[in-house]
Specification:
Elements lengths: L1 H15 L26 E2 L2 H8 L16 E6 L4 H16 L5 E6 L4 H6 L7 E5 L7 E4 L4 H12 L5
Parallel strand pairs: 1-3, 2-3
Antiparallel strand pairs: 2-4, 4-5
């Protein structure tokens, strides 16, 4: 009986994160009651923004990021429940590490070519891009605030402020 329940729960989770839109109506939990205007905005990247500011994969073969701060890119979709759950966590991380890292979002429905170019096959997908020629690190699925902090420390070498 437990295996059946686990299998059904796993199937539901995978379907909620698939790259195709669901025709079902999803009930969304309310956002925390915070003053959104106080939060530091997370910028949405387009394909062209990525080429100009992060990495021009159309002209280069070897990875090299020449930005001034390490970055996190969140690939998401508005209909994805785990993506909605990670959004306030990412906003909090953005505020906590303000001035030390940059955080961007990419809506895979608006920018499918960028998602494909970054090998995003499942969402939420987070790409942690360190400075220089160090390879990016990808995390797929819902992660908590402490997991973000651990990855930031390990990949970027930045301890919690």
């Amino acid at each position: 009986m437990n295996r059946v329940i686990f299998a059904l729960a796993s199937l539901f989770f995978m379907l909620s994160c698939s790259s195709q839109k669901s025709s079902e109506t999803t009930v969304v939990a309310e956002e925390p009651k915070e003053n959104i205007t106080d939060k530091m905005e997370i910028r949405h990247l387009t394909y062209n923004d990525f080429i100009k500011e992060i990495f021009n994969f159309e002209q280069s073969t070897g990875w090299s990021y020449n930005g001034d701060k390490p970055i996190i890119i969140d690939f998401y979709a508005d209909w994805c429940q785990p993506c909605k759950q990670i959004s306030p966590i990412l906003s909090s991380i953005n505020e906590e590490y303000e001035g030390l890292i940059k955080v961007y979002k990419v809506n895979i429905d608006d920018e499918p070519e960028l998602a494909t170019a970054c090998s995003v096959k499942s969402i939420p997908a987070l790409i942690f891009i360190p400075m220089g020629e160090k390879e990016p690190v990808t995390s797929v699925g819902l992660i908590g605030k402490n997991d973000f902090r651990s990855i930031i420390k390990e990949v970027f070498g930045i301890s919690r402020p």
